[in-house]
Amino acid sequence: MGTLQKTNSTRMPNLELLRIVSMLMVIMLHLFTQGKVLQSVTGGVNYYFTWIMEALCYTSVNSYMLISGYFMWRTKFKWKRIVSLYAQILFYTIVIAGITFLVKPSLFNAVTFSKLLPVFSGNNWYISIYFVLVFLTPLLNAAIRNIKQSTHKSVIGILFLAFSLMPSVFFNADPFLVNAGYSVLWFMYVYLVAAYIGKYNIELRKAVITIMCLMLVLVPMSKFFMDLYHLISGNYEIQGTFFYTYNSSPVAVASIGVFAFFLNLKIRDERLGKFIIKVAKTTFGVFYIHTFFIYRDFIWEKIGSTKFVDSPLFIPYCFGIVIAIFIVCSLIDFARAWLFKVTRIDKLIEKISHVIELRVRLE
After folding, report:
1. Confidence of residue 115 (pLDDT cuts 50, 70, 90)
2. Cα separation, 167 vs 243, whole angstroms
3. Angle between helices 149-160 and 184-199 (to 10 degrees)
4. 330/192 Cα distance (integer angstroms)
5. How many CB atoms are located within 10 Å of the residue 194 CB?
6. Contact at 8 Å (CB) between 200 and 193?
7. b/e per residue, 181-191, with b = 16+ CB within 10 A?
8. Residue 211 half-sphere exposure, CB side, CA atoms within 13 Å?
9. Three-state DSSP class for residue 308
């Protein structure tokens, strides 16, 4: 699926650009949900914009996992990846919680303190699931390397029927506990799909990619159709958001289409590629900083996330606030990376990783 574009690192600027775009979409999702925009916008252009953007942004988390699976299936398990990530999370948890406690102590209570332990306290579903998936990669990668292509393809097809198509057809029925994509089962499935694309260098034509991406149209259309049905019938038994899940068939197919589009994208300017890679390295920090559970709701309220829901300024406001949050959090993570370097925390992470590597072998 296109030629690998490499700089002096193993990162591909086209997929790193997808990482950045995906994080912008994640922030938009959080603006709509955590910022209570979805429940506040009532009609008109802003209503349709919100639900269309919500559908588009649902490809973001799948895109992240596709990027991970595309690279990680061929690599050995490294404790440094885990230790480095946990050190970053722990740093932000201590610093942000400390500052928040000094500035707004009323946000803290016994439950808050019990949720401060990163990953294990379950205050961030994505991070908890991602850590479990990383520990499963030695098993997944061994299977991926040794099974035949036909078997790999069949497994992907069968799991698509079970994890995606069936819940979509039967209005989010969940017999296999995929939990709308909020589960390690769904992450494993997306990982297997990405590994298949990478291992067999699957190429999709532009027409196929376009059709896959256009599947996403079904998501907001289903919402608007059900709005009309509710209005005419007065029956609200079936909600119109049944396609708004990470594992719904339109979202899953469109996510692969978006991934394929960026995989085929050519970024020929070397300086631009290096810049994209540098910014993309901060996306995890952007994610953790703006979703920190203690002040999340308080910050959205102060930003005034619902202030413009009935205003012509709503659409530019949404894009503006998303970009602003990304830039601010990205700059903070650049500062964190610099601090880790000058204080030699990076060296300490390497030493700790090496010690664990000697005692616990997972590859």
Report:
1. confident
2. 9
3. 140
4. 30
5. 23
6. no
7. bbbbbbbbbbb
8. 5
9. coil
Give just the sign of the alpha carbon dihedral 310, 215, 186, 141. Answer: negative
Residue closest to 283 by CA, chosen among 85, 53, 36: 85
The pair of structure tokens assigned to 101 is 């406690």
Whether residue 1 is predicted with pLDDT greater than 60 in this model: the reply is no
Indicate the domain borders of the chain: 13-359
Contact 349, 305 (CB under 8 A): no
Residue 113 to residue 129: CA distance in whole angstroms = 21
**Tokens found for residue 123:** 């205050």
What confidence tens digit (pLDDT) does each residue in 311-351 have?
999 999 999 999 999 999 999 999 999 999 999 999 999 99
What residues contact 42, with CB distance under 8 A and at least 6 apart?
A: 309, 310
Q: How far apart (Å, rounded) are the C-alpha atoms in residues 65 and 198?
A: 13
- What is the tens place of the pLDDT at every residue in 128-145? 999 999 999 999 999 999
Report how far Cα 136 is from the mean position of its chain's Cα atoms: 19
Give every CB contact of residue 341 below 8 A, 6+ residues apart in sequence.
none
250 close to 221: Cβ distance less than 8 angstroms: no
Q: What is the DSSP string of 205-245?
A: -HHHHHHHHHGGGHHHHHHHHHHHHHHHH---SS-TTTT-S
* Phi/psi at 11 (5° precision): -80, 145
User: Element (H or E) spanning 129, and its range?
Assistant: helix 125-146
**Coil/strand/helix, residue 189:** helix
Helical pair 184-199 and 59-72, crossing angle rounded to 10 deg: 50
Paired tokens of 129: 């699931």
Closest CA to 51 of 291, 277, 226, 220: 220
**CB-CB contact of 163 with 174 (8 Å):** no
Label residue 277 exposed, middle or buried (CB < 10 Å: 0-12, 13-18, 19+).
buried
